[in-house]
Amino acid sequence: MRREVSMMQASPCKTISLPLAALESLVAGLILEAADGSIAYASPRALALLGDQSPEALIRGLGGAAPAVVDTDHGCRLALRACPLVDEGLTLWVLEDLTPATRAAVLRDDALRAMSHDLRAPIGTLLTLAEGAADGTLAANAETFARVAHFAGLALARADSVLRMLRADAATAERFELFDLQQIAWEAADECWQDARRRQIEIVVEVPDGETLVRGDLDMLRQALTHLLRNAVLHGPAGQRVSITVAAQAQAGYSVTVRDHGGGLDAVQASVLLAATPLAPVRGLGLATVRRICDAHGARLQYRHDADGASVTLHLPAAS
After folding, report:
1. Angle 23-297-319 (CA atoms, 0-180°, nearest 5)?
2. For the chain, which terminal residue's Cβ has fewer other Cβ atoms within 10 angstroms, N or C?
3. What is the pLDDT of residues 11-20, one digit of tens each?
């Protein structure tokens, strides 16, 4: 049976009939709401934009107000508008994803802030040290050179952070490669081994049997996992266990979770990972870069905190 829906054309009195399959090819998400408030249809694109949130809950939360802009729990910013289909007794809700434009604006602000403040501070100190050594107010000795090396390294690290963030935002699927997610889990653990050993923390890597193949930029995803794992190692309580777990999901795809027994992220840090726009800037670009890497890979981020600790999970689609 061919299911069809009538859509308004130029006039309320003129309609056309289209199979629902034709609507599923549109970039916008579409939801058909019946007169009693139930959902008659939701396109795959709409469900993907909503994540774990149900279409019923979304529309009920609007309270009839449209057009509207809403932020979902998993960090999408959506514009919604309602189109009454009078002849059918339905309301067509159109969902437009504003997240890319919103995140681009955040990226611009983060990059400008990093270049204007995070880079200027160590470079300014370097200039002061160089001028002091040149005019004799500072001794040109090993101590001064050590300070120069420290601030030069700091400036270089912050410049690298900006470049990594910009590179993540410019990533395209055409350059992605096939690799096993377990590989970068083990590599992230190796990267953090020395820090963990110093704090007497055990890193446990848990992976399933068989391959867990995904497509992406291996270096970027390894960087994201390493940053999350290092945060857990450095900011959680010493002498505890930190785990990184790769698992298959019920739907096609895999998850990788970093879990510790610490106090977790504060509200601003969590918003950098999860919200379309953060509550406020945070010092450093690590979490912002993690978010951009996930965006580039179509990965959904999930953060949880309870009495036992905190966890960050990346949900990645399986390789096609």
Report:
1. 80
2. N
3. 444 555 666 6
Structure tokens that stand for 267 in this block:
């509200």
Predicted TM-score of the model (pTM): 0.66
- pLDDT > 90 fraction of the chain, expressed in percent and rounded: 23
- What are the boundaries of each domain within the chain? 4-97, 101-169, 173-316
Judged by phi (left if over 0) then psi (alpha if -120 to 50, else beta), residue 278 lies in beta
Closest CA to 201 of 170, 235, 226: 235
Distance CA 115, CA 77 (A): 27
Distance CA(255)–CA(243), nearest Å, equals 13
* CATH class of the domain defined by 173-316: alpha beta
Rounded to whole angstroms, the Cα distance separating 281 from 283 reads: 7
Return the bridge partners of 69, or none: 79
The CATH label, of 3.40.630.30, 3.30.450.20, 2.40.160.60, 3.40.50.2300, for the domain at 4-97 is: 3.30.450.20
